[in-house]
Structures are given as structure tokens and as C-alpha cells.
């Protein structure tokens, strides 16, 4: 149950569910923060695009609102900073910001652990790097495995409005980095051919990074959004639930005591009673009989 204190900090007036039918918040700072907090270099170009680079330049992130296509987030990792990328991930301009933040948060941790972690290739049949581990969070939430076409495994959301596809066989490394023809593609909308948002990841993207995103997508908790910001959810598909404003806080014992005291009547004057006074004359005793 969400507490009153939690409701006061929620940035939105509606909850969007399921969360894969949310969209971008339009603010990139939360997803940039995990890397900037490590001291990575941040600079902007004249158009307003932002670039974040690891100190050794072996991981580079581009936040490209003024890019040439709808690939808003492009993240690449390198064994040699002067060579081609070892892996690449792209999130388009409608992906929920929380999903990108989940990725960059785990990426920051992986970078601190070294290249054996952030460059770890997926390997089928291993305990830690099996690609299948990335789909487990979705399967646990009722997503179903499908084979939509030859050479493709798909995991479909229960409502049919999101999916994750894994393509088998040999792929063009350059195409994986620059198009949607990548090993992994996560999407939401009417179909993978007409997605509202999508994310792609190339063949050698570490499983831990992929799993960070699928865990965030699979989380059953709704995401907060502002109803008037219709770009922040998939209109006509997402379920919107009003976030009720918090009621007054429960009174403390001191509050109750004060309330009772305020309702007491004013003190009445004491009833008039005869009192002995030094000025009073004592009654004379009567004659004895």
C-alpha cells in the first residue's frame, strides 16, 4: 500500500498500467545521473545533444534529441576506444525513461567492476551469461514464448501490446548498431512493425544489462504520469488510474488532547457558600434550661 508520504513525492496525477504502455517522461536527467555520478565526462553540442563518456572512453552514451532519427539514446562499449563498438544499445524517443535508467544504473555498476563485466559476452548454457536469463523476468509475469517466424524467438506480453524478439543466426554487426535489425528488440504498440517505442541491443550486449531492462519492464507496479502530458503514455491503450491526493494525517495523541481541551466550556464561578470571616459575629449562646 502506498503511504501518504509516498503519494506526496509522486511526480504525476495518474498511474499508467501495465507499465510497458507508458512512454517517455521527456526528461533525460534520471537516466544520465548514474553515469554522471561516477564522474563521467558530460558535454553538449551546439544542437543540444548530450554526450557522456567513461574516463577511459570505453563506454560512450549519446542523448540525441536533435539526432538524425528517432534513436534518442545510443550507448556503445569498446574493447579499444579507437576501434569499432563491441556492443551497442539504442532506445528510441518514446521508451519509458525508467527503462533507460534501469539500464544505465546497472551499466554504472558493471563499469566499476571492470571490462570482464561490462564486456561479458552472452554464452548459451552458462550459469551467469546465458541469454535466456534476460527473458526470465518477463516469463515470470505471464509473458508467453512464441515463434512468429523462422529464426526468431518472441516473448509476448499478456495483452499482446508488447514483446521481446531474439533473432538467431549470423547478423551484420554494422546493421545491428545502426538499424533495428539487431539481435534483441523490445517494443510496445500494435505490433513490432508499428511500435510506439522500441529498444534494440546487439549480439554481444551483456546479459546483466539486458536483464536490468526486462526486470524493469516486468515489474507489475504502475508508472506515474501526468494525464495532460499525453506523450508520456500510449493513449488509447494504457489504463490510467487517478492518484488520489493524500488525506489529512492521522491525529496524534497531543492533537486529540488539544481538540478536547478546545471544546471544554469556560470554567464556571464557584457556587456562593457562607464562609467564616474574622468580621463575622458569632451567634451568642442561648440561655441554658
Automatic annotation (TrEMBL):
The DUF317 domain, residue ranges: 54-110, 157-223
Record region (Disordered): 261-289
UniProt name for this protein: DUF317 domain-containing protein
Organism: Streptomyces colonosanans
Species classification: Bacteria, Bacillati, Actinomycetota, Actinomycetes, Kitasatosporales
Amino acid at each position: 500500500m502506498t503511504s501518504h508520504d509516498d503519494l506526496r513525492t509522486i511526480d504525476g496525477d495518474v498511474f499508467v498500467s501495465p507499465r510497458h504502455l507508458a512512454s517517455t517522461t521527456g526528461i533525460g536527467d534520471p537516466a544520465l545521473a548514474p553515469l554522471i555520478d561516477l564522474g563521467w565526462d558530460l558535454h553538449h553540442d551546439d544542437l543540444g545533444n548530450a554526450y557522456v563518456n567513461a574516463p577511459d572512453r570505453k563506454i560512450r552514451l549519446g542523448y540525441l534529441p536533435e539526432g538524425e532519427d528517432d534513436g534518442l539514446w545510443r550507448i556503445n562499449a569498446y574493447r579499444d576506444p579507437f576501434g569499432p563498438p563491441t556492443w551497442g544499445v539504442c532506445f528510441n524517443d518514446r521508451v519509458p525513461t525508467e527503462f533507460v535508467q534501469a539500464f544505465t544504473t546497472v551499466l554504472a555498476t558493471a563499469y566499476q567492476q571492470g571490462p570482464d563485466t561490462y564486456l561479458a559476452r552472452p554464452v548459451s548454457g552458462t550459469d551467469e551469461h546465458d541469454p535466456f536469463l534476460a527473458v526470465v523476468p518477463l516469463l515470470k509475469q505471464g509473458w508467453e514464448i512464441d515463434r512468429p517466424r523462422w529464426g526468431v524467438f518472441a516473448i509476448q506480453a499478456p495483452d499482446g501490446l508488447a514483446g521481446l524478439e531474439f533473432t538467431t543466426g549470423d547478423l551484420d554487426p554494422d546493421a545491428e548498431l545502426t538499424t533495428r535489425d539487431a539481435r534483441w528488440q523490445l517494443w510496445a504498440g500494435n505490433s513490432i512493425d508499428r511500435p510506439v517505442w522500441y529498444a534494440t541491443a546487439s549480439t554481444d550486449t551483456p546479459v546483466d544489462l539486458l536483464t536490468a531492462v526486462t526486470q524493469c519492464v516486468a515489474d507489475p507496479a504502475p508508472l506515474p504520469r501526468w494525464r495532460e502530458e499525453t506523450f508520456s503514455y500510449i493513449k488509447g491503450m494504457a489504463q490510467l488510474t487517478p492518484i488520489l491526493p493524500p488525506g489529512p494525517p492521522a491525529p496524534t495523541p497531543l492533537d486529540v488532547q488539544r481538540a478536547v481541551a478546545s471544546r471544554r466550556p469556560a470554567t464556571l464561578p464557584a457556587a456562593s457558600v457562607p464562609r467564616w470571616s474574622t468580621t463575622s459575629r458569632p451567634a451568642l449562646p442561648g440561655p441554658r434550661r
